[in-house]
Amino acid sequence: MNGRGIPVSSVIVVIGAGSIGQAVARRVSAGKHVLLADLRQENAKAAAEVLSNAGFEVSTATINVSSRESVRRLVREATALGDITGVIHAAGVSPSQASPSTILAVDLYGTAVVLEEFGNVIARGGAGVVIASQSGHRLGALTPEQNAALAMTPADALLSLPMLQPDQVKDSLHAYQLAKRGNALRVMAEAVRWGKRGARVNTISPGIIITPLAKDELSGPRGEGYRRMIELCPAGRAGTPDEVGAVGALLMGPDGAFITGSDFLMDGGVTASYWFGDLAPR
Questions:
Q1: Cα separations in angstroms, 225 against 91, 178, 269, 270
Q2: Which residues partner with 266 through β-bridges?
Q3: Are residues 176 and 98 in contact, defined by beta-carbon separation less than 8 angstroms?
Q4: Is 165 exposed, middle or buried (0-12, 13-18, 19+ CB in 10 A)?
């Protein structure tokens, strides 16, 4: 109840209205208000219609995660609806979709801003999930200083780090791997701050999950490599958004109450095969 005795809604904020964000939302949003935000309003509206037809209470918003003011505007919209008890951050661009600078701005900086801003308002008992990627696990080891810089540098200074300059990050895949490694490290650091509010936050690092974004990759310049990953990984197949949703439900629900600051790799064994199996670089 608020001060006037009016019930306050419990709000789940979904950033990135694609298949994975929707799948997690469906598992954790019954009886709550879902605020779906996307860079493209038409994407948010299409996803909202699907969820609304399935019985969820939904509203939409637009967001550009690479703009702090845009993220703050979404925070204001969400808090006007009620207590923010869940944040599902699934927005991002892939190596075949964007330049290195755009990937770092959206996937790395944008995630850091989302974690900072929503970490200021997340309700006690709340939880967040950031969708990272298996790619972060195939980046070689960084130095302890680089890990700390990615984890703890204030978001607005992140893109000025020497390790992220154009002479150091020359292709989109490297930028994507750095961004996704950075997401997992950032969540570890943010889990400490979120914990002071009685909230939790984790990352999920999916492998190839069949979504429109994955189809772009499979038909793009790296398509042959992605198909090889699917064929040679232990699972022998790609994953589904619903499988990611099941892990998201664990991490955001009561059964995951002791899990925070963790990264969950779910890639059908692609990374295992990359380091120790048939996908290992020759």
A1: 23, 19, 15, 12
A2: 206
A3: no
A4: exposed
Place of tokens 């939302």: 25
Residues 241, 247 contacting (CB under 8 angstroms): no
Q: pLDDT digits over 47-72, tens only?
A: 999 999 999 999 999 999 999 999 99
- pLDDT of residue 5 exceeding 50, the answer is no
Cα–Cα distance, 189 to 183 (Å, whole number): 10
Alpha carbons 177 and 175: distance in angstroms, whole number: 6
Structural domains present in the chain = 9-271 (3.40.50.720)
φ, ψ of residue 272 to 5 degrees: the values are -60, -45
Residue 6 has pLDDT above 60, yes or no: no
Residues forming the active site:
176, 180
User: In this predicted structure, what is the pLDDT of residue 145?
Assistant: 98
Q: In this structure, are residues 32 and 11 in contact, taking their beta carbons and an 8 Å threshold?
A: yes
Integer CA distances (angstroms), 149 to 153, 219, 264, 267, in order: 5, 35, 22, 27
